[in-house]
Amino acid sequence: MSGKKRKNAKRKSRLPVAVRSKKPLSSRMGVWLFEIFTFIVSALPLGLVLYNGWHFGLVLIALAYLVTALLTVHVTQQWEKVVVLRLGRFNRVKGPGIFFTIPFLESAALRVDQRIIVTPFSAEEALTADLVPTDIDAVLFWMVVNPQKAWCEVDNYPNAVSWSAQTALRDAIGRINLADISTRRSQLDSELRETLSAKTSDWGISILSVEIRNILIPENLQDAMSREAQAQQESNARVILAEIENQIAELYVEAAELYRQDEIALQIRMASMVNESVKEGGGNNLIVVPSSFSEGFNAGTMKDLKDLFAKQG
Q: So what's the pLDDT on residue 142?
């Protein structure tokens, strides 16, 4: 398998099942049954003529009646509109339901589906502003709002919409850097919708939304970007840790200054530490303290320690 075929197979495998499968056909059974019924009814005079005996004049009249009936009566579905031409010029838009045309003078030129149409499109190897090739898949939601313009202004409007969407996507990708594609995805969708709306409004087509579905970049570049993001996260973590240590050091400096100014506060803190050690050891720990520590237990300090121990239970 050639490289191009492998790439196309890989792209196809990335598409969801709904996109890879064929477009579901709309049920036209009612229209077909009506046309069959019209044909049978219109062919009855011809059948009677042939049954009762062949006559050239009557056969011609019956054939003319059959063709006239088939060219006169038409039926459209609920979601369809039909552009009717009279002698090659636009005359009116009919549908849904039954409508009539003048045989040989008028014709139903185009049936327009006015439901929302979903068109997947892509930009393969589109270069970003920093010259990085990317493959981008997107989905376009649109509908025909003016059948007259869709018939008169552009030939094969579904293909025109698809190609316009692909061109607009390539232009939008070429104006931004690779790092901005993911962060500006919603903004990029809005820009594409506005660009396509301005281009297709004259075609009688309304662009409902554009949604970027997938962004692929070269594998080696993915690894580089992953390492860069990891390094950035580690750098941020180190900065946060340094800031926290700096705040703790400042608190220690403030506490040391407080203890330096108030010896009673220092003695209470030391007694509290002793009390916590005793409670953690269940009263079985041997605690060694400097001899100068006992000098702090004077009458005034003992009262403060008594209050402290009472609060701690």
A: 94
